[in-house]
Amino acid sequence: MSTKAPSEKTSSSITQDFDTPEDRKLLRKVDFRLIPILTLLYLLSFLDRSNIGNAKIIGLVEDLKIAPPEYNTALALYFVSYVLFEVPANIILKRFDPQIWLPTLTVAWGVVTIAQGFVTNKASLFAVRFVLGMAEAGLFPGVIYVFSVYYRRHERSWRVAIFFGGAALAGAFGGILAYAIGKMEGIAGIRGWAWIFIIEGILTVVVAIFAYFVVPTWSHKATFLTTSEKARLLARLDADSDAALIEKFEWVYVRQAVTDHLVWGYAMLFHGFAFVLYSLSLFMPTIIADLGFASWQAQLMTVPPNSLAALSIWSTVWVSSRINRRAPFIIAAALVAILGYIILLTTKTPGAQYVGVHFAAAGVYTGNALLLSWPGENVSAQTKRAVAVAMQITIGDIGAIAGVLIYRPDLAANKFRVPHIISIGYLLFAILVTIYLWTWMKRENQRRDALVKEIKDGLAPSTPEQRQKMGDRDTFYRYVF
């Protein structure tokens, strides 16, 4: 049966059909089951990878007799293993079960974090940081992929923003927690910096055990939904994307991901933002301390910029999801971050430079929250999307490796002037990549609209099987830009 090109009216009616009170109730039920536990896991993940920055300013480096460049090497080793295991972790997830896989990863990195409290030299710190990256590698791309099989495309960005807000909250929560735990100095003969790792690692393991009973499985097997709710959820997904299909793993979809220029674009975009995300999150206590504040003050003064970042994420992404646009907001976030670094570079007083830290944090975290949901919205089929999300994190985190190596002692002169300038360069690169993606997707949507309009009387809508095979290359598929 032939059909006309989908008009705005048709599109709106379809949206309205799946925006009933029953649908909203179903979404709230899914939200309540997925978002709190997965956000908590990511908060703990970010806390356990970045708490070394808090430990550093209360004695870690001095006690382990680590030279400043070796500290940067320890940070980089985390991201090396993170990069190596990102794609394999998501391939395992696709063939396994998130209900078991994600909590197991959490237990693993919690145990490794505890072990970090007992390191005695640089070799043991290097080894623990490498294993920590390996254990944490699968969480973020795994959760993004799980979101893609529960939510329709336009519903994902806001959920990803709430989830990624856990990273900013980890920075705020971590500062307060590090300050409090640091008071345990000398208890049981253990230094305060070691207690930071031990206490936060134990907290992670406890939450992970609870997570085995809460983290959901795949949507088509979800036991927390009734049979009718599950059917409605799958119908919503089927009308929107490929998420309702039960897709068997095939290597052809992996090949589609690694040969798609848009997938590489998303990856390079995160590469630009990851440089500033991790250099800022890991070195924020040091940057603030170098402005002339005491170590205990620096711990607590990380709270306001990270809290502002969380608020910026949630408000900006809410507006972005309402108007269904991503690229303009990513560019705006990058410009806000650049303004922050310019303030850090050009002002002389600690108060003014502290304001710059706020702008940098708000822009950096917000831009990352927006771009990390982009491939989840625009890449189809399922396996291709799983690989694309993992590739984005993998290639992006090579930027993180560069970031933690650039913010090294011999470039710390004038309060990290050179690293801050390089950060601005990375953000400008991210803006250029965003413009490329925005332009290409807009033109491709227009080309497909014209094609459908041209052959409107002879073009039948795609079947689920055709959508699965063609994925985002389907003529009826439209990108969110």
Précis, in short:
The protein is an all-alpha fold.
As for the number of domains, it is 1
CATH architecture: Up-down Bundle
Question: What Rg is obtained from the alpha carbons, in whole angstroms?
Answer: 23 Å
Structural class: mainly alpha
CATH topology: Growth Hormone, Chain: A
Broad CATH class? Mainly Alpha
Helix and strand run: HHHHHHHHHHHHHHHHHHH
Q: Which strand-content bin applies to the residues?
A: under 5%
Shape: globular
Q: Which residues sit in consecutive blocks of at least 5 with pLDDT less than 50?
A: 1-16
Distance between the termini: 31 Å
Number of strands: 0
Report the major sheet.
none
Number of helices: 19
Domain Major facilitator superfamily (MFS) profile: 34-442
InterPro entries: MFS, MFS_dom, MFS_trans_sf
GO molecular function, one term: transmembrane transporter activity
Pfam families: MFS_1
Can you give a write-up of this model?
The protein is mainly α. It has one domain (21-473): Growth Hormone, Chain: A, CATH 1.20.1250. The protein is built from 19 helices and no strands. Keywords: Membrane, Transmembrane, Transmembrane helix, Transport. It is found in: Membrane. Residues 34-442 form the Major facilitator superfamily (MFS) profile domain.
